[in-house]
Amino acid sequence: MNDQILVDCRNVNVHFGAHHVLKHVNLTIRPGETVGLVGESGSGKTTLGRAILGIGPVSSGEIVFDGENIAGVPPRARQGQAAIQAVFQDPYSSLNPSMMIEDILTEPIVARGLASRADASRQVRKLLDQVALPSDAAERFAREFSGGQRQRIAIARALALSPRLIVCDEPVSALDLSTQSRVMDLFIEIQDRTGVAYLFVSHDLAAVRHISHRVAVMRFGEIVEFGECDQVTARPAHDYTKRLLLAAPVADPARQAERRAAFRALAMTA
Ligand SMILES: Nc1ncnc2c1ncn2[C@@H]1O[C@H](COP(=O)(O)OP(=O)(O)OP(=O)(O)O)[C@@H](O)[C@H]1O
């Protein structure tokens, strides 16, 4: 891991009317790094992801990407307009069911003028291969695929633009457990191969822990803890992080009972 910074959120605030949703958020992402962003529903994780993507507002503060302040600048107006991509939670609504996979994968490249349709089509097989889908998937329609396969297609669509960062907003929470772990492994493999960075947004600390180099914990729009994954999960500094850890699912029932007892003890002292 290097000391360079790819994304630097500096004192970012977002207000929706009178509601101060993001409060003085400072967060960095290094090239090739996964930063997990955890917190309960409504804490502001998606709002931060959308601000970084340029599809959500920023009331004040800076988001510096590659040395340029991109806060409030929509994706098309950004210099490296394709450099930040997204994979969202629901692969059923994020892909047009009646579009052919080849068109889903080539359209973002062609629309940005990054390659001709013929050149983009030549990349399709490689993209499908990167997400472990067979090349004949190109001629099929999105509606023919399962949730896990659709999420692989959504990942391939993000990769088509050779991004430096992918904002992954709850990308496995709509999938069943065994599919979740395969898609998580795919994210890791892709990062090892391409060096892409991830902001991995999830309410599930167990998932985040599996994939992240560093973890940021958000509560009521504030980052209450941010550090190396091992540090945050083994020696959390904030009680809120401790509670999230205790609520994180574990496979072993004895361990689960131990966690519940510890959680009750902590809740009584909180
Ligand atoms: N466009 C909007 N207009 C008004 N309020 C909004 C808007 N978008 C989000 N909010 C509010 O901002 C707060 C944070 O929402 P956000 O979706 O960022 O949280 P989250 O941590 O991602 O939650 P979840 O895990 O449920 O997606 C919520 O109270 C939400 O109602």
TrEMBL record:
This is ABC-type oligopeptide transport system, ATPase component. SUPFAM superfamilies: P-loop containing nucleoside triphosphate hydrolases. Residues 7-245 form the ABC transporter domain. It comes from the Bacteria. It comes from Neorhizobium galegae bv. orientalis str. HAMBI 540. It holds the Pfam family ABC_tran. GO terms for biological process: transmembrane transport. The keyword Transmembrane helix does not apply. InterPro entries: AAA+_ATPase, ABC_transp_ATP-bind, ABC_transporter-like_ATP-bd, ABC_transporter-like_CS, P-loop_NTPase. PANTHER family: D,D-DIPEPTIDE TRANSPORT ATP-BINDING PROTEIN DDPF-RELATED, TRANSPORT ATP-BINDING PROTEIN. Belongs to the ABC transporter superfamily. One of its GO terms (molecular function) is ATP hydrolysis activity. Keywords: ATP-binding, Nucleotide-binding, Plasmid, Transport.
